[in-house]
User: Fold N-acetylmuramoyl-L-alanine amidase from Candidatus Pullilachnospira stercoravium.
Amino acid sequence: MKKTSKTGINILIFIILILVLALGILAIVQYGRFRDQMEEKARQEAQAEAEATVTPTQTPTPEPTPDPSDPEVIREQLIGSIQTAIEENNVNTMANILRYTASDGSITAYPAEDVAEVLLHLKRDSADYWNFFTALRSESTSVNADGESQVLVLSTQDLRKMTNTAPKEGESIQPETPVGEGKMVAIDAGHQAQGDSNQEPIGPGASQTKARVASGTSGCVSGVPEYELNLTVALKLRDELERRGYSTYMIREDNEVNVSNAERAQLASQSGADILVRIHANGSENSSVAGALTMAPSTSNPYVDGQIVQECQRLSQLVIDSFCAVTGAQNQGVYQTDEMSGLNWCAIPATLVEMGYMTNPEEDARMQTEEYQALMVQGIADGIDSYFTS
Ligand SMILES: [Zn+2]
Assistant:
């Protein structure tokens, strides 16, 4: 009994404590709400006061957001694309953006050769690079070319006038003495219609042998065999080099031949040519692989004289660098190999150009176009010019 009443009192005290606590919490919450209301009221009053002082002409304006249809905004975007194109050696992108108004009023693209020349120049000359972009901002307008793509129309009809690559007043377009004058280039279009699996030594005195001529690769989408593409480009390279004053020696001008790689190298060496340029296209089991490279013997090559090896490597480096600068192809550099009969048997400086991968759908399709072939030829010819002038 006694114990029960004591328990009852304890419960009563506990309940009272709970009630006091609840009231306390309620009071705190109410005070908080009251304070928030007061603050909100004060804020509204302050805002009302501030708004009252705003005169009708000072209506608050929203943050300016760039208008995607604003010609100025489009022009800045196009200029940004040109900067990226120069960084990435992408002549195509640059050529697609820059236009001029021809005398008949039509919006016209600049010749790819001029765009490539200006791109290369801008990469080398930083002062001209800034001048070019300053001029671009003051002398261009963005125009919707054909209802889908935006282009920059420049005020000059000669893109090279935007840089100092243009011939000076009174200067003839062709230099007095063409770079190629007195120089001879042997050109070998790789492979032939039928490969020849009969063996030959890979170099003078070598016990190791290889097929006289491998059959080469072919275009995964174009279906064009490598020997055909190689000859197409080789013939265009011949014409371009002759235009630049070189004399040339063609190892083959027909697909129906049978000349081994060793024989090609020996023919080139005996022709009186100063250098040999071998034209090939690459293949890979991985269709996503793309890009260009050149091949040269290594410094430990047992078949090629050390001095010639140095020159092969110098030629290969200059050719691959200008090839990629002009075409925008991914630069896979100079591949050193001592397994190529067509280099090992050669007594003059030689390089083998792998122009691109015929197993890559985009690169295969691109290499079949007249435009890209012209760029490849220009890139190789520029590299040859550099070899003889540096
Ligand atoms: Zn090949």
